[in-house]
Amino acid sequence: MDSNKRPESMARIQTKEQADAFIAEQISAVRAQVGSGKVLLALSGGVDSSVVAALLIKAIGKQLVCVHVNHGLMRKGESEQVIEVFRNRLDANLIYVDASERFLSKLEGVAEPEQKRKIIGNEFIVVFDEEASKLTDIRFLAQGTIYPDIIESKGVKAHHNVGGLPEDMAMELVEPVKLLYKDEVRVVGRALGLPASMVDRQPFPGPGLGVRCLGAITRDRLHALREADAILREEFDNCGLASKVWQYFIAVPDFKSVGVKDGKRYEGWPAIIRAVNTVDAMTATIEEIPYDVLHRITDRITHEVDGINRVLLDLTPKPIGTIEWE
Ligand code: XMP
Questions:
Q1: Average of pLDDT values for 145-166?
Q2: Structural domain includes residue 115
Q3: Cβ–Cβ contacts within 10 Å for residue 301, how many?
Q4: Is the same domain home to 39 and 174?
Q5: Is residue 257 part of a domain?
Q6: Is the pLDDT of residue 169 over 90?
Q7: Closest protein CA for atom 11 of ligand 1
Q8: Of the residues 133, 165, 199, which one is the last residue of a structural domain?
Q9: Ligand 1, from 160, 212, 276, 326: best to mutate by most atoms within 8 Å of Cβ?
Q10: Which of 219, 227, 232, 300 is the most exposed place for a label (fewest CB within 10 A)?
Q11: Alpha-carbon Rg for the chain in angstroms
Q12: Which residue's CA is the nearest one to ligand 1's atom 3?
């Protein structure tokens, strides 16, 4: 039987009971596969890798070594959450690598989006490889592959995700959720006790804020983007839009306009709000954000974030506008 094919008899996991049964099954399978061997996992903090980590911690405890690479393009508080949940709450064997400086120096002056993606992807592999080579005795590599990654001919993970790892790592793969759909992964994550903020996370591109800090990334503009994005998320949480909208974020382009602050000329970048709904990310519609929410967000971003002097709203559905700006 093809182990990459979901059996037709496999019921969709929807309830806590079904998730618990799946977890118990996978715990035995993983234990049988790895024995007393050590397993390495690149833990981005995204839904899939987080659920795999929690499942493997349950199955093999400290035999799992998680590596979280902070590429400096995470949203505000994300790396901190990975450390809090996995190291502090789940007592995981977690190696945290703050590689922000390396990534940001490599990206300096690079404006072309695909080149930016390439640099981020390659540097990720270099950093992960460096960490892996410091460890001895690792025979297994765990991955958060999910069923759509397998069935989509050009699976998002293959060409999109920063987590694409070199094939010559010569490790046997451990992929406990590879037959699950995303909604099932979330149900399993909840049953494993992961926080809602992690399990219900909106999709986040592998290159992170790198493709939202448009053009050549600078540290000050990246900082402004991260702060503005955090305000947008906070306000969406407060008004209930967070659980309704599929993906929402800020992009900050590489140009300034004139403004006025405290009676003085104030040049700043615009923050562009994008909030879309979609089923499969192939097409997307625009969420109608109430004007009072837009005013509040504008007020907060222009007053609280250094360097931003205007807030714009992107009303373009996909097609023609892609979800991301780059
Ligand atoms: P687009 O911009 O193509 O985005 O309409 C569709 C979905 O894919 C995400 N996306 C990415 N995800 N690496 C990723 O892991 C990437 O380079 C990348 N580019 C876009 C985007 O956020 C949306 O969910």
A1: 62
A2: yes
A3: 25
A4: yes
A5: yes
A6: no
A7: 205
A8: 199
A9: 160
A10: 219
A11: 21
A12: 322
- Three-state DSSP at 288 gives coil
CA 97 to centroid of ligand 1, rounded, Å: 24
For the chain, how many structural domains are there in total?
Answer: 2
Q: From the CB of 322, is ligand 1 less than 6 Å away? A: yes
Q: How far is the CA of 28 from the centre of ligand 1 (A)?
A: 35
Judge if the beta carbon of residue 169 lies within 6 A of ligand 1.
no
Nearest to 272 by CA among 229, 233, 241, 239: 229
pTM of the model: 0.92
**Is the domain of 162 the same as that of 61?**
yes
User: Atom of ligand 1 at shortest distance to CA of 204?
Assistant: 22
Distance from the CA of 156 to the center of ligand 1, in angstroms?
A: 8
Q: Tell me if 317 CB under 6 Å of ligand 1.
A: no
Residues 309 and 226 in one domain: yes
CB of 202 closer than 6 A to ligand 1? Answer: no
Return the residue whose CA atom lies nearest to atom 24 of ligand 1.
203
Which H helix or E strand runs over 264? strand 264-265
Residue range 204-218, pLDDT digits in tens: 999 999 999 999 999
Residues 189 and 231 in one domain: no
| Ligand 1: nearest atom to the Cα of 160 | 13
For residue 296, the surrounding DSSP H or E stretch is helix 291-304
Q: Are residues 56 and 158 in the same domain?
A: yes
Query: Cα–Cα distance between 242 and 244 in angstroms, integer?
Result: 5
Structural domain includes residue 91: yes
Task: Read off the pLDDT band of 155 (50, 70, 90).
Answer: very low
**Same domain membership, residue 232 and residue 124:** no
Distance of CA 194 to the CA centre of its chain: 15
Give the separation between CA 236 and CA 296, rounded to whole angstroms.
Answer: 11
Taking residues 95-106, what's their average pLDDT?
98
In a domain, 194, yes or no: yes
Amino acid at 15: T
Boundaries of domain holding 190: 16-199
Residue nearest to atom 18 of ligand 1 (CA): 205
Do 243 and 303 lie in a common domain?
A: yes
